[in-house]
Structure formats: C-alpha cells, structure tokens
Design brief:
The chain is built from eleven helices and 13 strands. It is an alpha/beta fold. It has a seven-stranded parallel sheet with strand order 3-2-1-4-5-7-11, sandwiched between helices. The two termini are 30 Å apart. 42% of the residues are buried.
Length: 301
Amino acid sequence: MSRIVVAGANGFIGRALVPSLAADGHSVLPLSRKGEAVSGVAGAAWDGASVHTALVHLSGADAVINLVGAPINQEWNVKGRKEIVGSRLASTRAIGEALQSMPFPPSVWINGSATGYYGDAGETLLDESSPAGHDFLGETCAAWEQACTQFDLPSTRRVLLRTGVVFGPGGGMISTLSKLTRAFLGGAVGNGRQFIPWIHLDDEIALIKWCLDHEVSGPVNATAPEPVRNGDLMRILRSKLHRPWSPPAPAFMVKLVGAVLGFPAELALVSDRVKPIVAQEGGFVWKYPDVEAAVHASLNP
C-alpha cells in the first residue's frame, strides 16, 4: 500500500481518481481549497500556493499527483489569463519547493499539463517530442512544465501528464456538446476538420495509475490512440442522441459568440493531431480506444 496525495482532488478527474486509488488499497489524501471529502475519502485544505502547508501534507507520501488548475473555459481577459496561469504555476512551484526541502521526498510526482502544449498544429502529427506552440495555451503549458522540471529532485521521478479533452459521464466536453446537440445545435465547428485529442475518463485514471507503476518520466500524452475530427465527433453525437444534421457554425460566428459569452473560441477551433507514443510503446492498453464507444459510455454511464 502506498500513501498518495492528490492535489486538486475535487475536479472532474480528481473525483474519479481518488476513489479508484482508494479501491486499490492505497492511502489517499485529497487536497482542495476547502478540504472536503472526495467520495468518502477524508480530505485536507490547501490553498494551492502555501509551501509550508504542502510540506505538511506531503510528509511521508510515496507519490503526489497535482491536478490543480483554474478552468480554461472562462473568458481569456487579463484577469482570466492570470488565474489560469497563476493557479498552475503557484501549485507546481509550491510542491516543488516542498519536495526539495524534504530529506525523503515522494518517489513519484505526476504533474498536470495538457495537449494545449502543442498549440494549433493543424494536420501535423504530434508526439511527446514535438515542440510547444506559441499561442496562449502552448506558452502556459510550457511554463507549467518548466515549473515542475526546474527543481533538483534526483530521487523523485517526474511525469508531465499532457491530458487531452476528457470524455466521461457527469462533466467534461461531452456534457456541454450533448446539451447543444439535444437543442438541435450539433453542427461542426468551423470547417469541422480540426483534430480533437481526447481520452475517456476511465482511461485517464488508468493511465495515471500506469504512470505511478511504470518507470516513465517526462511528458506523457494522455490521449486515446487516435484523435477525432470535430465534424466526426458531432456526427457521432447527433446519431447517439437521435438528432438530424445541423449546419456548421462558421469560425467567425464561433468567435463572435465566444466574445459575447466570454468563451474562448480557440478551444473549439484549434487542431492537435496528438499520438500517445509513450503509452503505446510502454504497453498501456486502452479500455476505450474507439471514439464512438467512448461517447456512448459517456452518455450512458
């Protein structure tokens, strides 16, 4: 049995990860701002920035998984960008400083990142060795990862988990897109050819646990083996929800609506053709390698 600390445990991924780790027999400590329990597992409070509090909670831990980060589907004004970047860098640096001061730090540190690291890459095939993009998300993820790797921690194996769009019941992108589709607004976005790097929540949790147990380090793309084009995803959703064809939403309209509603249009228009080479070569087996099966499981838990 290992003692595992999960920071940012009350998010979409954390709420599924904590009980799964506990069911495997691990001693799990979920950290969140309010310190609430997660699926019956008692939690502790952490503001995502205090080094001292992080040190207290991490003492004696075998592994730490950091999922802290403000939602990116908010308005990307000065305040929103500051919160998105600041929450990720502050939590990562606090954990790094805490671990660096410990005589016996955890042997594994899995730190969140995202496939947004690659920027808008169009049709280019991307893997863990591909460079960072130069847009907001690319620069944010690059700084986020550098905040983790900057510390001298020779006895701590570090994994940079570049998570794609997570499909699953009760939240995530599928929840939003299914509402639009049910309202007969399930058309493709833009030309519909942009690639979406996705992963089902069950596979996200399994991959995190795989990273805990296998000697991998550095960036790991947490995605399904094949990304899906936006138009194909919307076609699958319309079929599953018994809705007719819907006209596509032109890029200019998406940007206009996004500007009015405070939703960053870039999230729907960027294309990342990401392949999870590290997981594939390491022998990881996906429960949902097929996007249609993953969408069905997300709509019918």
